[in-house]
Structure formats: structure tokens, C-alpha cells
Write a structure and sequence with these properties.
Blueprint lengths: L13 E3 L7 E8 L3 E8 L3 E8 L3 E7 L2 E5 L2 E5 L4 E4 L5 E5 L3 E8 L1 H8 L9 E3 L3 H15 L6 H14 L12 H13 L6 H8 L3 H12 L3 H19 L4 H7 L5 H12 L3 H9 L1
Parallel strand pairs: 1-4
Antiparallel strand pairs: 2-3, 3-10, 4-9, 5-8, 5-10, 6-7, 6-9, 8-11
Helix pairs in contact: 2-3, 4-5, 7-10, 8-9
């Protein structure tokens, strides 16, 4: 978070109707009464005035860094960041360079059902762009770019997966024992060559079995799955932003070799690393 940015178009807040967004739309698709997907492009040195939307929506930053004000607080946004804006949440943006966003709008009926089980959808802000969420968004973008290949069934199934992943099982970390945070921090630092379960349990001061059970309760996954997700997240960033080969990325992210990396990536993300790279860069 940064200090409040200066927006050249600040003024009276505008409330935008459903499926109405700033920026130039390169592609869009709508499932009537359910959801709306759009890829928006923003010009260099463009400003979006203070505004809100009638429907909840997600925004995934594909490219371009920019400044944003959300409910009076200033933030710096960057590629790979995922935000959620409940209906009526006010925000404004200042783009110093060209940018591209993937926007996913959710109809109130679906939004209410999801928000009842996911407090993160009731307040504006950043969501953790986990490998699963990034994968779902890139698959949505891939379907959008296929044009006539996009079906309402595919669109809705990916949307429902995203909403389900925002559910309460992902929100329990704040209620977990303090030592869970210590373990999570260590895993984030050492996922390329992680410590064993016994070493993590010793550092937390608990029995390994107790650690494993409480970790799953807090995060919704095992320690091994959490480590794999960290590696996938790092690999996704390298695919989108670097020129490294797949073999180099596999080793950098902690996988055994390129074959292992590609197999795990496809099974977890739903597309090959090469397809992911192409979709992230177009």
C-alpha cells in the first residue's frame, strides 16, 4: 500500500451499469443473467475517474503497473495481481504505461450465494493469486480468445471453481495457532528445498501429526500440496515474465526435471506450460 495517488480525473463518483467498464475491450463474452468476461486495454498515461459498479467483479492484471485508489486508500498494482470489488465499492486508477486486465463480473444471485460462504468477497481488495486461481483465469482467457469455441457451460464451470476456491476453507489461517504462520513463512522461503515435516514440527514446537492436521485445517491443503503450489506459482511468474526455457524454469522452481514440471503443471493448472506462457503474453 502507498500514499493516496493523485488522479487527474478525480471528482464526483460515477456508478457504472452492469457490463460497463473503462478501457478498450478487445474481447468479451456474456452468459445472460449469470456472468460476463472481458479483456480490457488501457492506454499509457490514462486515468479512470472515481467510480463503482453495480455488480461484484474480479480483476486480474495481465500486464502494466498502475496506481489505484480503493475506498480512499492508495495501492500500487502489478502484473499477476488479482483483486475483487463488491458491488458499490469505489475505486479510481492512474495508468502510467499500457496495461491489460481480465475482468470477470458476477451476477448478484451468484455473488450472494458465494459471498455467504466467503467473507473475502464482501470487501474490496487483493486476493492471493494462487496457482489454482491463476490457472482458472488463464483458462478463461484462453476460452475467451477462442471466440466461437467458448461455451456457456465451460465459462460457468470455471467461474464456479473460482468462487468455490474463495470459500471459507481458504480463510482460516487468521484463526490458526500463531506457529502455523511461522511454518507458512518458512515454506515460502524454502519451497525449492523444503525442510522435512519433522524439522518443521520441531521449529513449531508441536508433534508432526498435530502439525499436519492443523496445517490442513488452516490452509485447506497438506504441507506437500502447499509446497507444490508455491513452486507452481513461481513457475507461472517465470513463464509470464522471463525468457527462461522450460528446463531452466523447472529447476529454478524446484521440480525434478522438465518432464516432471510439465506433468504436474498440466494436471494442476489445466494447460501445458507452453500454452500458459502464450496466453500470458498475448
Amino acid at each position: 500500500m502507498v500514499g493516496k495517488p493523485r488522479f487527474v480525473n478525480e471528482g464526483r463518483q460515477r456508478r457504472l451499469a452492469p457490463q460497463t467498464y473503462f478501457g478498450d475491450s478487445s474481447r468479451e463474452f456474456s452468459v445472460s443473467g449469470r456472468c460476463y468476461l472481458r479483456e480490457s486495454n488501457y492506454a499509457q498515461d490514462s486515468a479512470l475517474p472515481l467510480h463503482s459498479h453495480e455488480h461484484l467483479h474480479f480483476c486480474y492484471v495481465i500486464s502494466g503497473r498502475y496506481e489505484e485508489e480503493v475506498e480512499g486508500r492508495g495501492f500500487q498494482r502489478q502484473p499477476g495481481e488479482l483483486m475483487v470489488y463488491p458491488a458499490g465499492a469505489s475505486h479510481a486508477e492512474q495508468h502510467r504505461r499500457k496495461g491489460r486486465h481480465l475482468i470477470l463480473e458476477v451476477h448478484p444471485a451468484l455473488a450472494r450465494g458465494a459471498a455467504d460462504g466467503a467473507a473475502v468477497l464482501n470487501r474490496p481488495g487483493s486476493l492471493e493469486a494462487t496457482p489454482l486461481r491463476r490457472g482458472l483465469l488463464m483458462r478463461l482467457r484462453h476460452e475467451l480468445r477462442q471466440g466461437d469455441a467458448l461455451s456457456a457451460e465451460v465459462f460457468e464451470s470455471l467461474l464456479l471453481e473460482l468462487l468455490a476456491d474463495c470459500g471459507p476453507v481458504r480463510e482460516r489461517l487468521s484463526d490458526a495457532p500463531r506457529w502455523i504462520g511461522t511454518v507458512v513463512s518458512k515454506l515460502r522461503r524454502t519451497y525449492g528445498d523444503p525442510a522435512g515435516l519433522d524439522a518443521l514440527a520441531d521449529e513449531a514446537g508441536v508433534h508432526p501429526v498435530y502439525l499436519a492436521r492443523r496445517f490442513r485445517e488452516a490452509t485447506g491443503c497438506s504441507i506437500g500440496e502447499f509446497t507444490r503450489n508455491l513452486r507452481l506459482s513461481h513457475a507461472q511468474q517465470l513463464l509470464a515474465e522471463s525468457g527462461m526455457s522450460l528446463a531452466e524454469i523447472a529447476l529454478e522452481a524446484g521440480f525434478f526435471d522438465q518432464s516432471h514440471f510439465c506433468r504436474v503443471f498440466k494436471s494442476q493448472i489445466g494447460m501445458t506450460p507452453g500454452a500458459y506462457r502464450r496466453n500470458a503474453r498475448v
